[in-house]
Amino acid sequence: MNNKTPCNQSTQKFFIELKYIHTYAKYFFRILTVIILIGCEKTDARTIRVGVYDNPPKIEMSNTGTPKGIFIDIIEYIAKCEKLDIKYIFGTWDECLTRLDDGSIDLMPDMAFSDVRNQRFDFNQLVVLSSWLQVFCRKDIFIGSVADLEGKTIAVLEGSIQQQVSGEIRKRFGISYNQVVLHDYATTIKQVESGKADAAIVSRFFGLHMNKEYALVPTPVILDPTNLHFATSKGRNGDLLAAIDKHLALMENDPHSMYYRSLAFWIQEKPRTFIPPFIVWLIASIITMLLIFFVFILLLRLKVSTRTKSLKSAADQLLESREYLKTVLDSVGDAIFVEDSETGRFIDVNRRACEMYGYTYDELLRIDIENLSIGESPFSQNDVLTWFKDAIETGPQSREWLTKHKDGRTFWAEVQIRFAVIGGKKRFVVVVRDISVRKKSEEELLKVQKLESLGILAGGIAHDFNNLMSGFFGYVDMARENAKDENVSQYLQKAMEAIDRVRALTHQLLTFAKGGAPIQKIGHLFPFVQETVKFSLSGSNVACLFTVQEDLWACNFDKNQIGQVIDNLVINAQQAMPEGGTIEVNARNIILAEKEHPLLVKGNYIKLSVKDSGIGISKEIITKIFDPFFTTKPKGHGLGLASCYSIVGQHGGCIDVESELGKGSTFIVYLPAIVGYIQGEEGTNVKTHKGSGTFLIMDDEKIVRGAIEAMLNSLGYNVIHKENGIKTIEFFKENSNITGMIFDLTIPGGMGGKETVAEIRKLNRDIPVFVVSGYAEDPIMKNPADYGFTASICKPFVLAELIEMLEKHMKKQE
Predict the structure, then answer these.
(1) Is the dihedral of CA 104, 106, 112, 115 positive or negative?
(2) Hey, which end of the chain has fewer CB within 10 Å, N or C?
(3) Angle at 391 (CA atoms; ends 350, 383), nearest 5 degrees
(4) Beta bridge mates, 87
């Protein structure tokens, strides 16, 4: 007879369930005891002092005084693994560097590697993050290229790589702008938002963070790609850097590591909520109490089998992990390839790899490295395979590689190859970075250096040529002055005109070499412009039509430099009409009102235009024609119009251009005018000068000394020669009855004019001392009084120019 009644069965079931509850409760309290004991355990661990400054999301100090960011996540994980205690010390970037130098802190995160810093600090070997600098500005400011920084106010962080790069930009590209140096990033951005600065240079990570909190926009100007590391004082804490590299190597090879989780958390744009620690503990306590009260009920309801759920959960986690890894890799700006070391096939690539090479994801998985190689040494497939072999034998490799796009074009890339065992299988992880822009910049820098060398050579040649021409010019001028035969005088005058052309040419060479300010004189542009145009078009199939206002105002201009501008504009117009035609040159007076021209202040101007009927200029390139090195000519150097723009700008004017394809172009030059000028004021009325006494001449060239002596003799002066400054000073100390002196600015291998006049002024501050030189662009020639000279005159010069100078300054002495 079955005696198991429903009551007995219920009783049995109750006691069985009570037994399960007792077992679960026992294990629960044991685990809780272990957690409490571990939390209370106190060990003596090494304490490291870590510097912290504000540069989110990489590193910053929160409002509660707790550091956070990518670098904080990494160092705290490593400290936990290595059983280290961390003491954070907050300050500005510059303060942190000073503390690292004097040993007040042991470790500084987020430091960009450079050769200069490598001499000052020690860095860990592996790259923590790759970064670059970017210019951010307000929405009402347009910055499309480095050239747009001209004249603006740029804010940078004090002591940072941004400050160093900013200085290099100004030197490399010749750009002038105001730089405001501030002690932290927040102040830097506020300067821009308030209008006290136009833009700021920040790192790309701060740029991501800044888009969320500040009303600034990114510009296309990307600068100085660099790698970020941990750093210590030179020669200190090497074991700490080694520990960092050890854990970085493990984390970077594990897609599920804390390293990639931190990157995803801080870099991906998602809302973040901060909960104060005491709230977390309060909630945890409440949850624990609730668990204790309801654990019995939950245990009774969770007795179903969990095997199927566990399998499904594992599959879901695997899929989630793969999607997570793909999202992280696709967010990287470099192409990433994972290659099977045995078959050589790509088994995975990121989105940037597809964009960089033009293949789809599936296409890349069907090809190998041969399809990306140009097939020629040292960038062939065999060369790349050698790099893979080196990665296995000696460690990670970094190379510059000329690689090939799907469409056949080639481009420069930086390749980093790392051998790794992933999931028990041997793989190569290849990171490819497009460095075409950097290579182009290097080529442009080389071009600039070559032009600088050419400029130095041109300046030296022009100076030596002026020295040689000085004597020849002087003697021909004296022969013309003393010629009795009219035909001989005319021939000598023609020779003087030809030599004057040579003098103008050497001045252009010196302008190209020095790029200095113009040496201006008040005068009329015509007939000078007319003669320059005719000379430029001589021998060509192009005619010229002049339309000049009768009462055209005068202006203050450098004949040689404005002549160079006219030459360039006329030659460009002639080249735009290869089949011949007519160039129209117009000149008239205009009065500009306030803001009538965007680049000019109100006032009186001469408007000079050069118009051709050639092929015209397209809208796409007309905005670039004044940029240095921009040219559409196969053999052009791109300096002609850039030089014109610079010269006219230094005269206080500007150049405009109007063009239409198929109809021609008009270049318009505006120069400030001098109203009411009379031609006789130009100084050509000075014809004679008579003097007496003795002049002391210092020049290393005998022929030059002879020519100057002949000129001075004809004016009534006696002359004494000296070859260098030492002999000149010794002579003057013994013979103070000198009327005046003429010094050459440079004496090869000896004391020149600058040093000599300084000693003369110690002996006599009133005696007239004139300086001569073939370097017309030298600051001393432009401002002789600032260096102790009475006046200056450029080689080669004629008697009339010498008379004009002596008449003006020797009369004052008398």
Answers:
(1) positive
(2) N
(3) 85
(4) 49
